[in-house]
Design brief:
Elements: E1 15-19, H1 24-39, E2 47-51, H2 57-71, H3 77-86, E3 87-91, H4 97-107, E4 113-117, H5 124-133, E5 141-144, H6 152-162, E6 171-173, H7 181-192, E7 205-213, H8 222-226, H9 229-247, H10 258-269, E8 278-283, E9 301-306, E10 318-323, E11 330-337, E12 355-361, E13 365-373, E14 380-388, H11 399-409, H12 418-433, E15 438-441, H13 450-455
Parallel strand pairs: 1-2, 1-4, 2-3, 4-5, 5-6, 7-10, 8-15
Antiparallel strand pairs: 7-11, 8-9, 9-10, 11-12, 12-13, 13-14
Helix pairs in contact: 1-2, 1-3, 1-11, 6-12, 9-10, 9-12, 10-12
Bound molecules: 6-O-phosphono-beta-D-glucopyranose.
């Protein structure tokens, strides 16, 4: 452990081994993250790539260069040569014990390896089992990509398989949303300011809305997405984790894992979702996407109302919608406050409610929608208080950079724990058991019109706040 590191951090990694180094995620995200970590001076250990492809060290370095050129642009040669010098390659079949012996040799006596598994989920326990058999897991940490299971039962089963070899503290489950700076900003904004906390409850908030919208379709991910759908792809994990931060109780200062504990408490207070308060949609054209099964009923849009049974939130609806082929790429969460009464000013209109929005995408920031007098008229109009989070454009750590950097440095609070994973699956499980029909929607719209019925009588879905 480096000098001065807080005592709850684990030892820093002395090697990073990446299973699935030749795959798509590595090409699009991992090499970019490693390059940025190298440029920031945050990489100190060797990196061993493992995959089935018949490559050698040089081929891996060429692939790294191509991937970085494709995702970052032309690399700085000094940075790239430092990164390339760390890379070595082990070819092998994950079902063959010999592969893990060779991985063991490549680790070169490292005592605190981090294994990053960016491989299809059905191989997670095979690889962890192989590492265990080869005696490589004693002081190791294993980073696991999402999805962690496809429902509550499979998440428990997967965890049980991993725990034959690993302790909970050794398993680092990635939810890349938690590595986003604006998601971390939510906790800061809520709790390093004292003005929000007194109004952040059922007395003042009428409802909460969250949107995760993308203005593109499933593209080349038909095989993955058709088996998953919007509920499993982004709501069970990204959306609920963000809601956890928006709605949890304040973390306590004397416990390093307090944020994960407070989120867990919140998830436990969430009622299991009601299938009658769930709308699924599929964009027209999804069935033509390569590798999508004929007649597939997978949802590319989902909207749901959730409830939290605790002192702070009882009776406040939480609406979430997420979808592909929407009119904009936007990810935000808004607390809508109660309306003021009609006061006979502003032409006697009832004022609109104030809204506090945390915007994750496209430009991170937060906005308090206020109203003020329209100059020269007896009317009111929006007068927003806006804070943009981006301080040095392009320099904030990106999610994978932050999370891989944390895994290597031995910092674990941004990884999801099994208890929270199980609670979030519990919340959405009734929707998986009883999904209801999938309704068509035209691309470039906000999903099927039935999604508006969900909020009727309480609110309308807010137009995303765009720059
Ligand atoms: C991923 C989903 O976890 O998150 C994708 O699998 C989705 O379908 C993505 O597009 C959204 O995250 P981001 O960071 O790209 O907005």
């Amino acid at each position: 452990m480096s000098k001065g590191a807080p005592k709850h951090d684990a030892a820093a990694a002395d090697v990073l081994a990446i299973f699935g180094i030749s795959g798509d995620l590595a090409k699009k995200m991992t090499f970019r993250a490693l390059y940025r970590l190298e440029a920031a001076g945050k990489l100190e250990c060797p990196i061993v790539g493992v995959a089935i492809d018949d490559w050698d060290d040089e081929r891996l370095r060429r692939h790294a260069r191509e991937s970085i050129a494709g995702s970052v642009g032309d690399p700085d040669e000094d940075v790239f040569s430092r990164l390339a010098a760390r890379l070595s390659y082990v070819q092998g079949d994950y079902t063959d014990a010999d592969t893990f012996k060779r991985v063991g040799v490549a680790l070169g006596g490292a005592e605190h390896p981090v294994f990053y598994l960016e491989i299809p989920p059905f191989l997670f326990s095979t690889v962890v089992g192989g590492l265990g058999q080869a005696g490589l897991t004693e002081n190791a940490h294993v980073v696991i990509e999402k999805p962690f299971g496809h429902d509550l039962e499979s998440a428990r089963a997967l965890n049980a398989e991993l725990c034959v070899v690993l302790e909970e503290e050794q398993i680092l489950r990635i939810d890349h949303y938690l590595g986003k700076e604006p998601v971390m900003d939510i906790t800061y904004l809520r709790f390093v300011n004292s003005i929000l906390e007194p109004v952040w409850n059922r007395e003042h908030v009428s409802h909460v809305q969250m949107t995760i919208a993308e203005d593109f379709g499933v593209d080349d991910r038909g095989r993955f997405y058709d088996a998953v759908g919007a509920m499993r792809d982004v709501i069970q994990n990204h959306a609920l984790q963000v809601l956890g931060l928006v709605a949890m109780e304040p973390p306590t200062g004397n416990h390093h894992d307090s944020i994960r504990d407070k989120k867990l408490e919140l998830f436990k207070a969430m009622r299991a979702a009601d299938p009658k308060r769930y709308v699924r949609g599929q964009y027209e054209g999804f069935l033509d996407v390569k590798d999508v099964a004929p007649g597939s009923t997978t949802e590319t849009f989902a909207a749901v109302e959730l409830e939290i049974d605790n002192w702070r939130w009882s009776g406040v609806p939480f609406f979430i919608r997420a979808g592909k082929c929407m009119p904009s790429k936007s990810s935000e969460v808004t607390a809508v406050f109660r309306r003021p009464p009609q006061l006979g000013i502003g032409h006697g209109k009832t004022p609109e409610p104030n809204k506090m929005t945390f915007r994750i995408e496209p430009v991170p920031g937060s906005r308090m929608r206020m109203y003020a007098k329209k100059a020269g008229e007896e009317a009111f109009e929006p007068a927003d208080l806006e804070v943009l989070f981006e301080k040095v454009p392009g320099e904030d750590p990106e999610p994978y950079e932050r999370l891989l950097g944390d895994a290597i440095a031995g910092r674990h609070p941004l990884f999801t724990r099994q208890d929270a994973v199980e609670e979030t699956w519990r919340v959405v499980q009734p929707l998986l058991d009883e999904p209801g029909p999938v309704l068509p929607y035209a691309p470039d719209t906000w999903g099927p019109k039935e999604a508006n019925d969900l909020t009727r009588g309480i609110a309308q879905w807010s137009e995303p706040w765009l720059p």
